[in-house]
Specification:
Heat Shock Protein 90, Helix Hairpins, about 450 residues, five-stranded mixed beta sheet
Length: about 450
């Protein structure tokens, strides 16, 4: 009873029945009015013709001196299915021979005297049925002396009404069956994908993001809902994968420095490193691993703030050449030790209002990524340019390049191409670039290297 499969056909059928009843009510009233009007028109027409015929025969009867006019009232009644009455005065013997007598009080005698036809409803003496009638005045010699009344039982209207209702009832029953079939068909077409979506939603709610979804076969609301639900499921699955990757990466990245720090701390406590050089080496390892932990925690916090749109920026005047020189020098020793051709090219000296620490963080991430993928003896170029109100900082390398199918993936958190690192550098760099009002672009060719470009507004 609470299922949409039941309620939808029920609502449709109730609506159809209500509409049919309202329409049928109007149609019935129109039929009654039309049938009564048609009956009265026929009675007036018959009364007019019969009154003229009766007047002609009555005049001839008077002229010829006969007792009654040759007016075959019984034959006319059988032929027309009516009853004939006369109301008025008798001006010669046998005048109403064959006609039924009707009291003149049943008519509006002023209308009769005026020569106007009238319609009425009355109950003849000696009967228990009502009749519809038309009264046509009869004139002889220019004087109205009575009226011929043509009447028909109202029961005949009831008989025609029953015939009308039986036909309408059959039509309604046929229409109702056709509507029921159509509603059931539409209900199945509508509820089947919804039931599948509901089943898939139950599976997704249970944590099964690989639930099989129905194929969207139309572009209506259900098809749109199916597509959006599929996208939502894919994003949930991707979020779950990212969560697992986060746990794996972070647990690995945390475990390694923590293990190293614990080992060296235990060695120092137990006095295993007695000479000064060994103690200094242990302390240096502890310092480096502590910085590594701090960077990892900082990256995770930055990513969380960027996703939650709660990242705060400090605006200041930044001399980009000096800031880039700082980033450049931070990697110069690594470049020297690995034989990498490490160059810088500053074609402009812009000063912009932005968050210098975040710009430095972006450039450092880009340089760190370049050094990770550039082989020993390769080439890395840090460049600065300004044109058309935009400042661009680019980092180009001679690494293996990035395939087109991976160019979106590398900006997803925790995605790593070789399983090393945290996969947070590039996602944080892109998020920071957007937070600063700029963008991060990528140009790459497999086998020839990649070029990342940070574009910031100069104003």
């Amino acid at each position: 009873m609470h299922s949409l499969r039941f309620r939808m056909p029920a609502i449709f059928l109730v609506g159809i029945i209500v509409a049919a009843l309202v329409t049928g009510g109007f149609a019935l009233q129109l039929f009654l009015d039309y049938n009564q009007d048609k009956t009265l028109r026929d009675l007036r027409r018959q009364a007019d013709g019969l009154a003229e015929l009766y007047a002609t025969q009555a005049l001839r009867t008077v002229e010829e001196g006969r007792q009654s006019p040759p007016f075959a009232a019984p034959l006319i009644e059988r032929a027309t299915g009516t009853r004939l009455y006369y109301a008025g005065v008798e001006i010669f013997p046998g005048q109403i021979s064959g006609l039924r007598r009707l009291n003149r009080d049943a008519l509006d005698w002023e209308l009769v005297q005026a020569g106007r036809v009238q319609t009425l409803q009355f109950k003849p003496p000696g009967t228990d049925r009502f009749y519809l009638a038309a009264a046509q005045p009869i004139e002889l010699g220019g004087e109205t002396f009575g009226a011929l009344v043509v009447a028909k039982p109202r029961a005949e209207l009831h008989d025609s009404l029953m015939a009308f209702l039986s036909r309408v009832g059959l039509a309604f029953l046929g229409g109702l069956i056709a509507a029921l079939v159509l509603v059931l068909y539409l209900s199945i077409r509508v509820t089947r994908p919804l039931r599948r979506l509901s089943s898939a939603a139950d599976q997704v709610a249970a944590g099964r993001y690989d639930a099989k979804l129905p194929r969207a076969r139309s572009e209506d609301e259900i098809g749109h809902l199916t597509d959006r639900f599929r996208e939502m499921t894919e994003r949930l699955a991707e979020s779950q994968r990212r969560e697992r990757a986060f746990l794996m990466v972070v647990s690995h990245e945390l475990r390694t420095p923590v293990t190293a720090i614990r080992g060296h701390v235990e060695a120092l406590r137990e006095g295993l490193t007695e000479d000064a050089d060994a103690r200094e080496a242990s302390l240096e390892v502890i310092r480096a691993e502590t910085e590594r932990l701090a960077r990892l925690v900082g990256d995770v916090l930055d990513l969380a703030r960027l996703d939650a749109h709660q990242f705060t920026l400090e605006e200041e005047e930044v001399e980009l050449p000096r800031l880039l020189e700082q980033a450049y020098q931070a990697f110069s020793e690594e470049a020297r030790s690995r034989g990498i051709d490490y160059e810088r090219s500053f074609a402009a000296e812009p000063v912009i209002h932005t968050d210098g620490d975040r710009v430095l963080q972006i450039v450092s991430n880009l340089l760190g990524n370049a050094f990770s993928w550039t082989p020993d003896g390769g080439k890395i170029l840090l460049a600065l340019a300004a044109e058309n109100g935009t400042v661009s900082v680019s980092v180009a390398d001679s690494g293996p390049g990035i395939a087109r199918v991976e160019r979106d993936r590398i900006f997803r958190p925790f995605y790593t191409r070789d399983g090393s690192g945290t996969g947070l550098g590039l996602p944080i760099a892109r998020g920071l670039a957007r937070a600063l009002g700029g963008e991060l672009r990528l140009e790459s060719q497999v086998g020839k290297g990649s070029r990342f470009e940070l574009r910031l507004p100069a104003a």
